[in-house]
């Protein structure tokens, strides 16, 4: 399954990407999830993010590896891949893209691809995952206002 959320912000794309740090990461946390960041190396290839999540009273671990990063004239991006992810997820890839619209505007794109044991479970969790990433839109707009 795939989720794509686009957010336009009125800020230079390089300035936007430079704020992709631990503070932004914490601000993007959905309200229904308690989050403890155990490790946050950054957004470059080889960096790692380790989390302890508590959702509806259940504590789970999440570990991601930044598998690639790219910096170009019109786009900056990085990909995080789930290394240790909670069930029912079997695979998780999140591409974070910041694209230049013009000198004073950027498009932030969250592209999430995930897989579970079967399509029924994937479809069942889609609304919750989509909502959690849609929550980022007003946060991005506020942070980059």
List keywords for this structure.
alpha+beta, Alpha-D-Glucose-1,6-Bisphosphate, Chain A, domain 4, 145 residues, 7 strands
Proportion of β residues? over 45%
**What is the succession of H and E elements?**
EHHEEEEEEHH
CATH superfamily: START domain
What class do helices, strands and sheet pairing give? alpha+beta
Number of domains: 1
Rg of Cα set: 15 Å
Number of strands: 7
- Helix percent reads 10-25%
CATH topology: Alpha-D-Glucose-1,6-Bisphosphate, Chain A, domain 4
Q: Which strand order spans the largest sheet, edge to edge or round the barrel?
A: 1-7-6-5-4-3-2
Q: What is the average of the pLDDT values?
A: 96
The largest sheet, given as strand count, sense and whether it forms a barrel, is:
7 strands, antiparallel
* H/I helix tally: 4
The best one-word shape is globular
The low-pLDDT segments are: none
CATH second-level architecture: 2-Layer Sandwich
What does this structure look like?
- It contains four helices and seven strands.
- By secondary structure, the protein is of the alpha+beta class.
- It has one domain (2-30, 70-143): 2-Layer Sandwich (Alpha-D-Glucose-1,6-Bisphosphate, Chain A, domain 4), CATH 3.30.530.20.
- The protein has a seven-stranded antiparallel β-sheet.
- A hairpin with a 3-residue loop joins β4 (58-71) and β5.
- The chain is globular and about 45 Å long.
- The mean pLDDT is 96.
């Amino acid at each position: 399954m795939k989720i794509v959320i686009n957010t336009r912000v009125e800020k230079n794309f390089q300035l936007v990407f430079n704020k992709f740090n631990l503070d932004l990461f914490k601000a993007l946390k959905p309200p229904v999830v308690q989050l403890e960041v155990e490790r946050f190396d950054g957004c470059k290839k080889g960096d790692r993010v380790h989390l302890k999540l508590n959702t509806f009273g259940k504590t789970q671990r999440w570990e991601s590896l930044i598998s690639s990063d790219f910096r170009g004239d019109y786009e900056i991006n990085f990909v995080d891949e789930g290394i240790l992810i909670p069930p029912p997820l079997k695979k998780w890839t999140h591409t974070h893209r910041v694209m230049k619209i013009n000198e004073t505007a950027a498009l932030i794109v969250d592209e999430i691809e995930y897989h579970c044991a079967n399509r029924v479970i994937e479809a069942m969790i889609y609304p919750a995952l989509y909502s959690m990433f849609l929550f980022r839109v007003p946060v991005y707009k506020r942070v980059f206002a």
